[in-house]
TrEMBL record:
Residues 43-269 form the Metallo-beta-lactamase domain. This is MBL fold metallo-hydrolase. It holds the Pfam family Lactamase_B.
Length: 359
């Protein structure tokens, strides 16, 4: 069902979606792959770009899908039927999250030979965080993440136990990261299929998320930075407990302003769409509304993040969603705190509460 925000956008393909373990050709040399995810957000979009690298014909893959047997089998079917008998030449990953990074090691290893490596391309910040996270929790779960959420008011024992038990959350989905990579940086141009794709770095959702814009083709691979249906998750996590990622994210959206309105946006979740400026406005307005809700609540009495969940998230949340919701609630509080519009105090109970700054 299309929501009110989506109705203001244009979806050139209508409701068309790629089938399981197949591709949908959007235009010559561009194929859309859709892999399943075992979450409420039940899919990720991956992209195949026809390419030539070092004189070899083949494909560049953008993002990888989760590291599980179902995704491996889907990729193997695509290799057999959808690549026109050509190899994958390189793998570009927009950022370190498991649904994007999970099978990077398997893909690059599968398509590498002793003389022609299939290399991972991504930002340095996200590559090194993936290396770290594959051997630790890094804000995804475990005792440290649980204690951090408790310090922001999470009191439900069941959710606490769920977060504490997720000590292997990232390693279970990204057990191995390729041992080497090619660095992508903001403003860099990557030649793919005879056309230049400019890297646009975004912050807040991930340390150094890379979107790819091709002016000649009128395409933007937006990853998770701009999605048509939902707002991007932006969370504060335990390893950077005083961070202000939401301000970083909103500032990063400015980098997409001025792109042509007929740009076809290829998001990581949802359908390809046109109407980028409209969507950017919607996202800024969404967070402005959330900021106002938080300010109003904190003007009435001091609030911790868990207090705000029913106001910021009106739908029922499962425990997986609740952890992301906690991170987002803290992010909204921190943005206003860093702006000087809220003040923060640590109570005798070890919980941070935020209150309005007196005029």
């Amino acid at each position: 069902m299309t929501n009110a925000h989506e109705s203001q956008l244009h979806f050139p393909l209508g409701d068309a979606l790629p089938g399981n373990a197949t591709t949908l050709e959007l235009r010559p040399g561009l194929r859309w792959v859709r892999m399943q995810l075992p979450f409420v957000l039940n899919h990720i979009n991956l992209w195949l770009l026809r390419d030539e690298l070092d004189g070899r014909q083949g494909w560049t893959v953008v993002d990888c899908g989760l590291n599980n047997e179902a995704t491996v089998q889907a990729w193997e079917q695509i290799f057999a039927t959808e690549l026109d008998g050509l190899p994958v030449l390189r793998v570009l990953v927009t950022h370190f999250h498991p649904d994007h990074m999970g099978l990077a090691h398997w893909l690059t290893e599968h398509w590498s030979t002793p003389t022609t490596p299939c290399r991972l391309w991504m930002s340095a910040a996200d590559y090194y965080l993936a290396r770290l996270a594959s051997g630790s929790t890094v804000g995804m779960g475990g005792a440290s993440a649980t204690d951090f959420f408790i310090s922001h008011g999470l009191s439900d024992p069941q959710t606490q136990a769920y977060v504490r038990a997720r000590s292997d959350y990232y390693p279970s989905m990204v057990p191995v990261v390729p041992a080497s990579f090619q660095r992508l940086m903001d403003g860099q141009c990557v030649r793919i299929g005879g056309m230049d794709w400019r890297c646009i770095a975004g912050h807040g959702h991930a340390p150094e998320h890379i979107s790819l814009h091709c002016p000649e083709a009128g395409l933007l691979i937006s990853g998770d930075m701009v999605l048509p249906r939902i707002s991007t998750n932006v969370s504060v996590v335990d390893i950077e407990p005083d961070a202000d990622p939401l301000r970083q994210y909103l500032d990063s959206l400015r980098r997409f302003e001025g792109l042509p309105e007929d740009t076809l946006v290829l998001p990581a979740h949802g359908r390809p769409f046109q109407g980028l400026a409209t969507r950017l406005t919607q996202l800024h307005e969404h967070h402005a509304e959330r900021f106002e809700l938080v300010l109003q609540a904190c003007a009435q009495r001091p609030q911790h993040a868990a207090d705000l969940l029913p106001q910021l998230f009106t739908r029922a949340l499962d425990m997986h969603q609740a952890t992301f919701a906690m991170g987002e609630a803290i992010a909204h509080l921190h943005a206003l705190w860093h702006q000087g519009r809220l003040q923060r105090q640590l109570g005798a109970d070890g919980v941070y509460r935020f209150s309005a700054v007196a005029a």
